[in-house]
Predict the 3D structure of the following.
Amino acid sequence: MSTVSWTTLEFEPKERHQDWNWYAGLIAAIVATIAFFYGDVFFGIFAVIAGIVVIIYAIRPPKHLAIVINDSGVSVNEEVIPYPAIQQFWLDETDKNDKLLLLVKGSFVPMISLPLEGISAETVRAAMKDHAPEVEMHESRSLKIFEHLGF
Protein backbone atom coordinates (compact mmCIF):
# COMPACT_ATOMS: atom_id res chain seq x y z
CA MET A 1 0.00 0.00 0.00
CA SER A 2 1.27 3.45 -0.79
CA THR A 3 1.29 6.20 1.77
CA VAL A 4 -1.36 8.90 1.53
CA SER A 5 -0.73 12.15 3.39
CA TRP A 6 -2.03 15.69 3.62
CA THR A 7 -1.97 18.68 5.93
CA THR A 8 -4.98 20.63 7.05
CA LEU A 9 -6.20 22.92 9.81
CA GLU A 10 -7.83 21.51 12.92
CA PHE A 11 -10.96 23.55 12.19
CA GLU A 12 -12.00 26.31 9.83
CA PRO A 13 -11.09 29.67 11.39
CA LYS A 14 -14.06 31.95 11.96
CA GLU A 15 -14.05 35.70 11.63
CA ARG A 16 -15.76 36.95 14.76
CA HIS A 17 -16.71 40.48 15.62
CA GLN A 18 -14.71 41.88 18.54
CA ASP A 19 -17.88 42.07 20.60
CA TRP A 20 -18.38 38.28 20.35
CA ASN A 21 -16.14 37.68 23.38
CA TRP A 22 -17.97 40.35 25.35
CA TYR A 23 -21.34 38.76 24.53
CA ALA A 24 -20.09 35.32 25.59
CA GLY A 25 -18.74 36.74 28.84
CA LEU A 26 -21.94 38.67 29.49
CA ILE A 27 -24.09 35.58 28.99
CA ALA A 28 -21.87 33.57 31.36
CA ALA A 29 -22.00 36.38 33.93
CA ILE A 30 -25.80 36.61 33.74
CA VAL A 31 -26.20 32.85 34.11
CA ALA A 32 -23.76 32.83 37.06
CA THR A 33 -25.57 35.76 38.71
CA ILE A 34 -28.93 34.02 38.43
CA ALA A 35 -27.42 30.81 39.80
CA PHE A 36 -25.88 32.65 42.77
CA PHE A 37 -29.19 34.50 43.36
CA TYR A 38 -31.02 31.17 43.66
CA GLY A 39 -28.32 29.73 45.91
CA ASP A 40 -26.76 27.33 43.39
CA VAL A 41 -23.12 28.19 44.01
CA PHE A 42 -21.68 25.21 42.13
CA PHE A 43 -23.62 25.95 38.95
CA GLY A 44 -22.62 29.61 39.22
CA ILE A 45 -18.95 28.67 39.45
CA PHE A 46 -19.44 26.25 36.55
CA ALA A 47 -20.99 29.04 34.43
CA VAL A 48 -18.02 31.34 35.11
CA ILE A 49 -15.47 28.64 34.26
CA ALA A 50 -17.44 27.61 31.16
CA GLY A 51 -17.57 31.21 29.94
CA ILE A 52 -13.82 31.62 30.38
CA VAL A 53 -13.09 28.35 28.56
CA VAL A 54 -15.41 29.27 25.65
CA ILE A 55 -13.67 32.62 25.23
CA ILE A 56 -10.18 31.06 25.41
CA TYR A 57 -11.04 28.44 22.80
CA ALA A 58 -12.73 31.02 20.57
CA ILE A 59 -9.64 33.23 20.35
CA ARG A 60 -7.05 30.48 19.80
CA PRO A 61 -5.95 29.82 16.22
CA PRO A 62 -6.40 26.34 14.70
CA LYS A 63 -3.52 23.89 14.85
CA HIS A 64 -1.99 22.40 11.72
CA LEU A 65 -2.62 18.67 11.37
CA ALA A 66 -0.33 16.34 9.43
CA ILE A 67 -2.38 13.28 8.51
CA VAL A 68 -0.78 10.12 7.13
CA ILE A 69 -2.50 6.88 6.10
CA ASN A 70 0.02 4.03 5.80
CA ASP A 71 0.43 0.33 6.62
CA SER A 72 0.51 0.88 10.39
CA GLY A 73 -2.67 2.95 10.60
CA VAL A 74 -3.84 6.54 10.46
CA SER A 75 -1.42 9.06 11.99
CA VAL A 76 -2.47 12.51 13.13
CA ASN A 77 0.54 14.61 14.19
CA GLU A 78 2.60 11.52 15.09
CA GLU A 79 -0.26 9.93 17.09
CA VAL A 80 -1.02 6.61 15.39
CA ILE A 81 -4.50 5.10 15.34
CA PRO A 82 -3.90 1.42 14.47
CA TYR A 83 -6.30 -0.24 12.03
CA PRO A 84 -7.64 -2.78 14.58
CA ALA A 85 -8.90 0.18 16.65
CA ILE A 86 -10.78 1.68 13.67
CA GLN A 87 -14.22 0.05 13.60
CA GLN A 88 -15.42 1.85 10.47
CA PHE A 89 -14.89 4.94 8.35
CA TRP A 90 -16.98 7.25 6.20
CA LEU A 91 -16.13 10.01 3.76
CA ASP A 92 -18.59 12.83 4.37
CA GLU A 93 -18.89 14.64 1.05
CA THR A 94 -22.08 16.58 1.87
CA ASP A 95 -20.53 19.85 3.10
CA LYS A 96 -18.37 22.27 1.16
CA ASN A 97 -15.32 20.61 2.77
CA ASP A 98 -15.05 16.82 2.63
CA LYS A 99 -14.20 14.98 5.86
CA LEU A 100 -12.90 11.57 6.82
CA LEU A 101 -14.92 10.26 9.77
CA LEU A 102 -13.35 7.47 11.83
CA LEU A 103 -15.18 5.45 14.50
CA VAL A 104 -12.45 4.42 16.94
CA LYS A 105 -13.00 1.90 19.73
CA GLY A 106 -11.35 2.42 23.08
CA SER A 107 -10.89 6.15 22.52
CA PHE A 108 -12.02 9.05 24.69
CA VAL A 109 -13.47 10.64 21.53
CA PRO A 110 -15.09 7.76 19.60
CA MET A 111 -15.70 9.66 16.34
CA ILE A 112 -12.79 11.54 14.83
CA SER A 113 -13.39 14.01 12.01
CA LEU A 114 -10.44 14.81 9.75
CA PRO A 115 -10.90 17.49 7.06
CA LEU A 116 -9.66 16.59 3.59
CA GLU A 117 -7.62 19.39 2.07
CA GLY A 118 -5.72 19.05 -1.16
CA ILE A 119 -6.62 15.37 -1.54
CA SER A 120 -9.59 13.66 -3.14
CA ALA A 121 -12.06 11.52 -1.27
CA GLU A 122 -11.46 8.68 -3.75
CA THR A 123 -7.75 8.58 -2.89
CA VAL A 124 -8.53 8.32 0.82
CA ARG A 125 -11.26 5.73 0.17
CA ALA A 126 -8.81 3.57 -1.79
CA ALA A 127 -6.28 3.77 1.06
CA MET A 128 -8.82 2.89 3.76
CA LYS A 129 -11.03 0.27 2.08
CA ASP A 130 -8.70 -2.69 2.74
CA HIS A 131 -8.38 -1.91 6.45
CA ALA A 132 -11.85 -0.91 7.69
CA PRO A 133 -15.43 -1.15 6.43
CA GLU A 134 -17.00 1.95 4.91
CA VAL A 135 -20.27 2.53 6.78
CA GLU A 136 -22.36 5.68 6.53
CA MET A 137 -21.95 7.95 9.58
CA HIS A 138 -22.75 11.57 10.33
CA GLU A 139 -21.37 14.10 12.78
CA SER A 140 -23.72 14.93 15.62
CA ARG A 141 -26.31 17.63 15.11
CA SER A 142 -24.97 19.53 18.11
CA LEU A 143 -21.67 20.06 16.24
CA LYS A 144 -23.58 21.51 13.29
CA ILE A 145 -25.50 23.83 15.63
CA PHE A 146 -22.28 25.00 17.34
CA GLU A 147 -20.64 25.65 13.96
CA HIS A 148 -23.67 27.70 12.93
CA LEU A 149 -23.44 29.73 16.16
CA GLY A 150 -19.80 30.55 15.45
CA PHE A 151 -17.94 28.12 17.71
Summary: The longest helix spans residues 19-37. The chain has a mean pLDDT of 87.
